[in-house]
């Protein structure tokens, strides 16, 4: 100020508490842009109490061998259905074209490249965590070893042979039935589990190999969900086998839950999720015409039906979680993609659980794009654990 004896600050700075208040009121995208303003703003962002992000859609690029190289873009497309805005994540590497996504956890994705190598990819930081080669796989059965070769359609040719005589006993083509991913974004602890045929395979941080385990029933896995060191595996007979991953090097099978009495032959019980309160949920459907939602009491091993309602929550089939129905997220709805719930529906969709009506469609995402995309997936964006 003119006439004042106080020195003028050339670079005025906001008080840290005020910066935090500003950041906490920004949208997800604006928040991460604001973190780059200065070191002070970046430091303040670590103390913010961020509200729950709404579900986004990610579209992975399709393998387009018939197109010239100059027209191929190694990027992914993101869409925020609340703000109706699209974003592009570029420079993901040319291998992204023939890389398939099998699971996600917040902003982390489990990827399998064309050379049969798994890695974890953070879509916002582009950080990669490379997982061990499948050649390192260890089996509980000392008499066999498995070798994998990826086919063009993301299935495997699995060769089984014996250690002692090195004689091949079988060579079969399998696809990955289902997979789950869990990541602690602060310390980068992680767990990956995937299933093919009657076999479950897992790897967690600190191990140098993939490890094989099976349920005592030796049945194929239909779906699975992971919460608080517990893996719940839905198998062919519609029962659930529970494994504890906190008991040492190998998971321990500690419980088996029968399916609800209502799940008779004409009903398919094939999807699991974890609710906001930590309950394990399951969907039973009658050939896609109607469905019921059940919650499991892990103490009594019993199921109880939820009368066509999740209350003030929505179910993300891709991430096997429920999210709060607020800030534009539709109440009592099921978010799914790629025909996961209705086999005759390959689009990206939101369906009302009670009425079975489609309340949102996103066909325009691929129709308006000059490049082909595949593997649409719902996810909840996060950054640095927030």
Automatic annotation (TrEMBL):
UniProt key word Transcription regulation: no
Domain KIB1-4 beta-propeller: 78-350
Secretion signal span: 1-27
Superkingdom of source: Eukaryota
Keywords, alphabetical: Signal
Family annotation (InterPro entries): F-box_BR-signaling, F-box_dom, KIB1-4_b-propeller
Source organism: Eruca vesicaria subsp. sativa
Family annotation (Pfam families): Beta-prop_KIB1-4, F-box
Coiled coil: none
Database matches in PANTHER family: F-BOX PROTEIN KIB2-RELATED, OS07G0183000 PROTEIN-RELATED
Domain F-box as annotated: residue spans: 16-49
Name of the protein: F-box protein
Keyword Signal: yes
């Amino acid at each position: 100020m003119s006439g004042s004896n106080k020195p003028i600050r050339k670079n005025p700075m906001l008080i840290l508490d005020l910066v935090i208040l500003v950041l906490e009121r920004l949208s997800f995208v604006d928040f991460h842009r604001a973190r780059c303003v200065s070191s002070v703003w970046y430091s303040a962002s670590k103390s913010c109490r961020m509200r729950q992000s709404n579900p986004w859609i990610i579209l992975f690029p399709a393998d387009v061998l018939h197109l010239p190289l100059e027209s191929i873009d190694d990027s992914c497309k993101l869409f925020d259905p609340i703000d109706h805005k699209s974003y592009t994540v570029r420079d993901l590497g040319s291998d992204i074209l023939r890389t398939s996504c099998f699971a996600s956890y917040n902003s982390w994705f489990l990827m399998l490249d064309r050379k049969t190598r798994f890695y974890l990819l953070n879509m916002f930081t582009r950080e990669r965590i490379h997982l061990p080669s499948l050649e390192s796989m260890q089996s509980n059965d000392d008499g066999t070893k498995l070798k994998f070769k990826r086919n063009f359609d993301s299935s495997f040719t699995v060769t089984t042979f014996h250690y002692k005589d090195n004689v091949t006993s079988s060579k079969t083509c399998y696809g990955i039935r289902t997979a789950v991913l869990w990541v602690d974004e602060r310390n980068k602890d992680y767990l990956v589990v995937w299933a093919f045929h009657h076999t479950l395979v897992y790897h967690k941080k600190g191990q140098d190999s993939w490890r094989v385990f099976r349920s005592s029933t030796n049945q194929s896995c239909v779906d699975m969900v992971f919460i608080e060191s517990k893996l719940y595996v839905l198998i062919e007979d519609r029962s659930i086998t529970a494994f504890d991953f906190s008991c040492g090097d190998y998971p321990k099978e500690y419980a088996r839950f029968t399916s609800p009495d209502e799940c008779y032959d004409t009903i398919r019980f094939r999807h699991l999720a974890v609710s906001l309160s930590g309950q394990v949920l399951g969907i039973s459907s009658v050939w896609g015409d109607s469905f019921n939602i059940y919650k499991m009491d892990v103490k009594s091993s019993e199921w109880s039906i939820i009368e066509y309602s999740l209350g003030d929550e929505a179910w993300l089939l891709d991430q096997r979680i429920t999210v709060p129905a607020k800030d534009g997220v539709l109440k009592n709805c099921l978010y799914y993609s790629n025909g996961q719930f209705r086999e005759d529906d390959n689009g990206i969709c939101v369906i009302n659980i009670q009425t079975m009506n489609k309340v949102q469609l996103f066909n325009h995402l691929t129709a308006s794009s000059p490049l082909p995309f595949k593997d649409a997936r719902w996810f909840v964006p996060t950054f640095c654990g927030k």
